[in-house]
Amino acid sequence: MPSASSTASPLPSPHLAPSRQWAATALSASARFWFLATVIGQLFFAAYIVALYGGAAARGDLPGWNAVMTHGHVPGDGVGNLATGVHLLLAAILMLGGALQLVPHVRRHAPRLHRWNGRVYLAGAVLAALSGLYMLWWRGAVGDTLQHLGISLNAVLVLVFAGLALKNALRREFAAHRRWALRLFLAVSGVWFFRVGLMCWLAVNGGPAGFDPASFTGPFLSFLAFAQYLLPLAVLEAYLRCRDGGNAMLRLGMAAVLALLTVAMSAGITVAAMCMWLPRMHG
C-alpha cells in the first residue's frame, strides 16, 4: 500500500486531459487517506507496546510480559528474555520511525533527520527480524507450523527489502530507494496488519470464525500469516503501476479499491484500539 512518500510527486500536470488529471488527484487523495489511517493506527500500537511491556519492565515486573505473549518472559532464559525485550523495544521504535521516514516534508526540509532516522529504521528492522526468528523457532510461539512459516517469510522479506533499500540509497538511485523503502515499511508492519486484520475479521463475523481461539490455529489464521504482508505488498505494486502509467479508468479503479481497503482497515484499527490496545494500556 502507498504512503505519503509515494504521493510526494508534484500535483498532476495541468496539461493532462481533465479526466486523467481528476483520476490522478483521486488516486493521490486515496493514498493520503490510507497513510493517515495507518499512522493513527500505528501510533496506537506503539503506545500499547510502551504502556504494557515498557511499563512492566519499568516496574521490574518482567513476568507481566506474559499477560499477552505466551513466552514473553521465561525464568532462567536470559538470552531469550533479552531477545524479547529488544524485539519489543524495536517494535515501538519502528512503528514511530517508519511513518516519519515516509513523510515527504521531512525528506525535503530535514534531510539529516531523514538520513539518520533511515539508518536507525534499517538497523532496527534487521534486528527485529532476526530476534523475531529466534523467538519463533527457538523459544516457541502460538500457532501452527504453517503460521510460523508465513511469519518467517515475512522476516526474510524484511531483510531483503532492507538490503535493497540501503543498496539503492548508497547508489543515489532515490526513486528505486523509495520504492524499496515502501516495501520495507509494509513488510515491517506485518505484525500490525495481522492484528488489524484479525480484529476486522472478528468484527465482521461477530466472533471467532475459521480458527480455534484456544489453540490459535485454523485456516483463517494460516491465511492471515501470509496475507498480513503479501496483500499490502500486492496492493502497493498495483498502486505504483496505476500511478506511474495507468489511464484514467485504472487510476479511478485503484483509488476506489484503496479507499475501500482503508475503510476496512480503519474498522480493524478501531476494534483493535477499543478491545485490545486501550484496555491493556489502562488496565
Strand proportion: under 5%
**N-end to C-end Cα span:** 33 Å
Alpha carbon gyration radius = 19 Å
Largest sheet: none
* Tally of contiguous helical segments: 9
Mean pLDDT: 90
Please indicate the count of domains: 1
The low-confidence parts are 3-14
Rough outline: globular
Which structural category do the helix and sheet elements fall into?
mainly alpha
Structure characteristics:
membrane, mainly alpha, 77% helix, DUF2306_membrane, single chain, disordered N terminus, 0% strand
Q: What is the structure about, briefly put?
A:
With 283 residues, the protein is mainly alpha-helical.
List the helices and strands and how they pair.
Layout: H1 18-58, H2 78-101, H3 104-109, H4 111-139, H5 145-170, H6 174-188, H7 190-205, H8 219-245, H9 248-282
Organism: Janthinobacterium lividum
Protein name: DUF2306 domain-containing protein
Keywords: Membrane, Transmembrane, Transmembrane helix
Structural commentary:
The chain crosses the membrane at residues 33-58, 78-100, 120-137, 149-170, 182-204, 216-240, 252-279. It holds the Pfam family DUF2306. It comes from Janthinobacterium lividum. Keywords: Membrane, Transmembrane, Transmembrane helix. This is DUF2306 domain-containing protein. It is built from nine helices and no strands. It has one domain. It is globular, with a radius of gyration of 19 Å. With 283 residues, the protein is mainly alpha-helical. The model is unreliable at 3-14 (pLDDT under 50). It starts with 17 loop residues before the first helix and ends with a helix. Helices cover 77% and strands 0% of the residues.
